[in-house]
Every structure is written in C-alpha cells, then in structure tokens.
Amino acid sequence: MQNPREFISESEESTARIAQELSSETKANDILCLYGTLGMGKSVFARALIRALCANPDLEIPSPTFTLVQTYETGQIPIWHFDLYRLEDPEEIYEIGWEEALDGGILIIEWPERLGTLKPSNATEIAFAASTDNANTRLITIKRPG
Ligand SMILES: Nc1ncnc2c1ncn2[C@@H]1O[C@H](COP(=O)(O)OP(=O)(O)OP(=O)(O)O)[C@@H](O)[C@H]1O
Ligand SMILES: [Mg+2]
Question: How close is the Cα of 43 to the center of ligand 2, in Å?
Fold first, then answer.
C-alpha cells in the first residue's frame, strides 16, 4: 500500500469516512498519533474511528480533554483515546494507564507532541492541516511506521 497516503476532506462527514476506512486495517498494538492545531478535526476523526472499531455508530465518545484518557471495551480490543493537550509533564502518562494501553490496546492519541521523548517511534502518524481554499477543507496525511 502507498505510504504515506494523502486525502483531501471537504467536510466533517468526509473526515469521518476516512477514519472508517482506516478502522478496517487497525489492529491490537496499533498506535495512532493525531497531529494538527486546534479545531483541525482530530476529535472528529477519533470519534468516527472508535465508533467503527466498536461497530456502534451511536456510541457516546466524550472528549478526554480533562480526563486525558477515555477507554472503550465494547470492541474486541480495548481502545484508549488520549487527549494530551493538558498533559504538563510527559511522565504523567504513566499515571493514566500508559503501560497497560501499550500491552495489547489500540491507542488513539491527540496532541502526541506532549509526550516529548516518550512518544512511541512505531506509531502511525496522522496529520491534519488547513487549506487556504475553504474553511472546511482539511489535508489529511496518514503515514504508517517503518
Ligand atoms: N473537513 C473537516 N474535517 C473535520 N472537521 C471539520 C471539517 N470541516 C469543518 N470541521 C469542523 O472543525 C471542527 C473540528 O473539531 P475537533 O474537535 O475535531 O478538532 P480537534 O483537532 O480535535 O481540536 P482540539 O485540538 O481542540 O482537540 C468541528 O467543529 C468540525 O465540524
Ligand atoms: Mg480534539
């Protein structure tokens, strides 16, 4: 498969569809790092991905902005959704289940930059960028590790 892959999304729904496509190739021990500034669509993507992995389009996906992590056991594999925007020290990650997550989970991480040197090197990197064309346009790049 081509790597990296690039997509142009013109809407929230289009971003959700890209996430749904990725869900079919996401497996235990996969780490997905979501990059992009505020409001770029990381949470839109994460929500659609988790719903697809859990095969439940109505699943409630609260934003882990304050809790930093939210877990889902509804699918076959535990899913860990991190939003590390408010992580002050990378070492704090160990207090919110990091090692357990790395032991067989699927990790979806918003603001992975906050991990500093603890950021895993074997992650799929998904970058969201704005476009000058249109306020709703996002350029999404998915880069598999290795
Ligand atoms: N093409 C698009 N893809 C995704 N979201 C879009 C798109 N166009 C417009 N939007 C809007 O942009 C916003 C994206 O918000 P979202 O919470 O997903 O951003 P985020 O990257 O998670 O930000 P934060 O860093 O604050 O968590 C939503 O309001 C969504 O409706
Ligand atoms: Mg977000």
Answer: 4
